[in-house]
Amino acid sequence: MAIIFDLDQTLIDSRAAEPYRMGKNRDLNKVYGMIPTLTPYPGINELIEECNQNNIRISIVTAGTIHYCKRVVEHWQWKIDHLVCFHDYAPLKKPHPKPIQMGVARLNKDTTDIIAIGDSSTDTEAARKAGVFSIGALWGTIDKQSLIASKPDLLCENVAELRNFIASKFF
């Protein structure tokens, strides 16, 4: 069993940093300085720890840079097996399946043994195209209707629901 997580709006609330992550106002140094304020959603730290204790491998697949992703992971002291970041799969991006396929390959598991969790319709579409069970993270989504309309295999209102699903299947 293994899990692929999206990073922003799935593991951490990074909305405050969004204006500085891309476009003409891009200022990565400002974003890096904001990392301590980009907090994990309630229950995420415990879920990651519980997955680690139960030998469930974890990959993060994100549109963020490797430097940003590593800094977030290190700041929150998460044990993550693999990171797949924008520069690994550019110019392709979700909803193209390549980012998820790279996560699957790095986890060295069959697609039937992996779930992918994300907050957007592009996460759902990429997981579906890659043949991976998709879970919609309603707790962090910016566009709830679009995520629902993308029809992930499962929708979770909060991290507790996700944890209960994972525990029932894999712990």
From TrEMBL:
Keywords: Hydrolase
GO BP term (any one): DNA repair
Single GO term (MF): phosphoglycolate phosphatase activity
Matches recorded under Pfam families: HAD_2
Annotated protein name in UniProt: HAD family hydrolase
Organism of provenance: Brevibacillus fortis
